[in-house]
Structures are given as C-alpha cells and as structure tokens.
C-alpha cells in the first residue's frame, strides 16, 4: 500500500489510531455522564442528553479536546475520573510492532494528537509509547485543533517537514481531510478505532485495522 522510499516522515495520531478508542468513548459517553448525573442530581438519561449536546457544540474545536475546559465547565475532577478507567487504555492491533519497525528504519516518527497534555501523559504512562517517537506534539501547543487549517503551517514552522514526503495515519476523517488540503501525500484511515464498536466507513481514504498490514518498512 505504501511506497516507503517516498516517505521521510510518519505522522501518527494517538486516540483511535495507536490506542483503542474504547477508553475515550467509555469515558466521555458513559463515565462522565454517570458522575455528572450523581453530582447534579439528575437521571443518567438527562445527563447524557445535556452533555452530548454540549459536546456536539464544541466538536472539532480545541475546547472539545481540552481537559481544563471541560473541568471548568462541568465542575468535575476529570483527570481522577480518567485514572478510574485507565485499565482500558490499550494499544490497537499491530501498533507496537509497527512502531518498532519504524524505529529501526530511517523515518522520522512524530505523534500529532489533539489530546490535552494531561491526557497524553496518562496514556504514555499506561501504554509506554514515548520511546518510539522523535517528537510528540499536542495541538494545544499551537492553539489549533488538527481540523483547523492553521494547525499545519504551525506544525511545519515548528518541526520543518515536507508534506509531499509524509505519511499521516489518523482515525478522524475531518482531520485527514484537513491534512490532505495542506498537501500531505499519503493518508491512511483506521477502519475499526473502537474495538468494542462497529467498523466505520472511511469513505475516500484507504484504511487499515491491524498495523502489520503496512509492514515491511524499507
């Protein structure tokens, strides 16, 4: 699928790409509403209705991914609540083998994630991914989510990459389209980001489920 001779830099998302999205879906769609209902004395159904609407209002914006923003909005200790579910943080199929193969190659490997820095730290603590990356970047460092067109010039100015010699793998179609508009040459989606959910339609993008489908790396 990939002509590795044309790739200098591999850009990798974290949640739903390297890590199973089940943790995040369970946290935001079930765990947070349960705590919110208890704190504000409402039914779980009422809590979900209110929270899902508030989440949708911020979808694709940096606030949607910002732990500080939601802690202030909801008056909940979200980091402690994340630790309650940390046992669900796990790598997706073939992710570690793929990262190890990249590490043995001459490719530059960069994580670009919308995850808030505190969430990133927790996941790196549980999944031990840091050793495989030359750089790890949260979009919060730039002030723009990856969906935003200004994220990409900020990334280029920061780390100096040639989009025509990049591979970018992400589970979000809006994010992939944003990278495509910026000029990234090779883009791959994830067909099954949540192991407990159904496969997704990745539309115009080629997709993988198990990263070993992309081996070997030359």
Automatic annotation (TrEMBL):
Membrane-spanning intervals of the chain: none
Pfam families according to UniProt: Hydrolase (PF00702)
Entry-linked InterPro entries: HAD-like_sf, HAD-SF_hydro_IA, HAD_sf
SUPFAM superfamilies: HAD-like (SSF56784)
Protein name: GMP/IMP nucleotidase
Organism phylogeny: Bacteria, Pseudomonadati, Pseudomonadota, Gammaproteobacteria, Oceanospirillales
NCBIfam families the UniProt entry points to: HAD-SF-IA-v3 (TIGR01509), PRK14988.1 (NF011564)
């Amino acid at each position: 699928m990939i002509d590795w001779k044309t790739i200098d830099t591999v850009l990798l998302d974290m949640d739903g790409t390297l890590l199973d999205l089940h943790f995040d879906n369970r946290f935001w769609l079930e765990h947070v509403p349960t705590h919110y209902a208890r704190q504000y004395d409402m039914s779980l159904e009422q809590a979900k209705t209110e929270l899902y609407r508030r989440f949708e209002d911020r979808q694709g914006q940096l606030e949607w991914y910002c732990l500080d923003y939601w802690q202030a909005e909801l008056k909940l200790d979200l980091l402690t609540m994340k630790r309650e579910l940390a046992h669900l943080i796990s790598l997706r199929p073939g992710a570690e083998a793929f990262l190890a193969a990249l590490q043995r190659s001459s490719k530059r490997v960069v994580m670009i994630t919308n995850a808030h820095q505190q969430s990133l730290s927790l996941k790196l603590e549980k999944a031990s991914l840091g050793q495989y990356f030359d750089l790890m970047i949260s979009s919060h460092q730039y002030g723009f989510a990856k969906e935003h067109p200004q994220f990409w010039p900020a990334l280029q100015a920061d780390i100096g990459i040639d989009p025509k010699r990049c591979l970018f793998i992400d589970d979000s179609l809006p994010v992939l389209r944003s990278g495509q508009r910026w000029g990234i040459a090779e883009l791959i989606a994830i067909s099954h980001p949540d192991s407990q959910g159904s496969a997704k339609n990745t539309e115009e993008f080629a997709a993988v489920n198990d990263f070993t489908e992309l081996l070997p790396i030359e």
